[in-house]
Amino acid sequence: MQKNSKRNNNSRVSDLELNAADAEKEKKEGQNNFVELLPPEVTFKIFSQLDIRSLCRASITCRSWNNTVRDSDSLWKPHCLTLRAVCQREIDNDVESGYSWRVILLRNYQKSKVKHEWLSGRYSNICSPLSLPEKIMYPMDADTWGEILEAELER
């Protein structure tokens, strides 16, 4: 019986040590997470300095960063307004439809890159569909193709 109670005491001690170690680890992680330590205004100021790629990477860093970045339209709106220079109609339609700025960016980012390449004349000398770089093409509506055709005709 004494052996059993001695084993139970050792078991309890090791459980307490593990719980203490877990609590200490969580405390250290919390101390390193500025999102939880700083006022929200400061956190948003820090995240607002990031470009699109860095903002997306920050959102996958941890759960608290994801919640902060994902739910903040004020972080995504400036990036969407930059895209609006290329995709004005698309962005305006998405705003009218009530999409969040993050979703608008997701819906239009790749399209704006491809549309910008077309409008800037990058593909002006393409002789056949086989010459088009397949990886960066993106489906576009008839109005967008009309804009691209007008730009080509002006060149």
UniProtKB/TrEMBL annotation:
Record's subcellular location: Cytoplasm
Main location: cytoplasm
Xref: CDD domains: F-box_FBXO48 (cd22113)
SUPFAM superfamilies associated with the record: F-box domain
Domain of life according to the entry: Eukaryota
Assigned keywords, A-Z: Coiled coil, Cytoplasm, Ubl conjugation pathway
Protein name, as recorded: F-box only protein
Originating organism: Canis lupus dingo (dingo)
